[in-house]
Design a protein that fits this description.
By secondary structure, the protein is mostly helical. It is built from six helices and no strands.
Length: 178
């Protein structure tokens, strides 16, 4: 197993550590775990490209690790009690994010059944969406008073990128290239 894949697996292992930190109101520690996990996300991609360590396993597990971390963080931070009111996310935030990811997963399954293969390539809008989702989590953990504006932006971008994935998936089903 190469270093890029080890870092991805480490990110998955950090998910329950993050959840426990949030549940026990150790938000500073949760922030450190989340930032470290986010750095491993950037680092594993860099290592895979720079050292030519791209693998099929890595291409599959990396987005799963990302989604696991982000979705778990949103659910944890919207359900935990004891956070200041301005930091408590309403339930529609994680529901929107989870719904988009489930629609993408369902669509990928349908494309695979229809075409025998599926291509899911991150786009600029999906990368910006992930950035705003991660920024939201960080701002909520530090108790930023205006985090609501950032999570609202993240929700809007999540919806926009969801429609973009649906459009691109429709093109794949219809046999057109992305």
């Amino acid at each position: 197993m190469n270093w890029a894949n080890r870092l991805t697996i480490l990110r998955i292992v950090l998910v329950p550590v993050f959840v426990m930190a949030v549940l026990y109101h150790r938000l500073g520690f949760a922030l450190g775990v989340f930032i470290f996990a986010a750095v491993t996300d950037a680092l594993d991609g860099y290592i895979a490209r720079a050292l030519d360590q791209k693998t099929k396993f890595g291409a599959t597990i990396d987005p799963i690790a990302d989604k696991l971390l982000i979705v778990t963080a949103f659910v944890s931070l919207s359900l935990v009690s004891g956070l200041p009111e301005y930091s408590r996310m309403p339930i529609y935030v994680p529901v929107t994010i989870i719904s988009r990811d489930l629609i993408i997963l369902l669509g990928a399954g349908l494309i695979y059944l229809n075409n025998g293969h599926v291509e899911i390539k991150p786009t600029s809008i999906s990368k910006v969406t992930t950035f705003f989702q991660m920024l939201t989590i960080i701002l909520v953990l530090i108790g930023f008073v205006y985090a609501k504006w950032v999570w609202t932006t993240a929700v809007i971008l999540t919806v926009v990128s969801g429609f973009d994935y649906i459009r691109r998936g429709s093109e794949q089903i219809n046999g057109r290239n992305q």
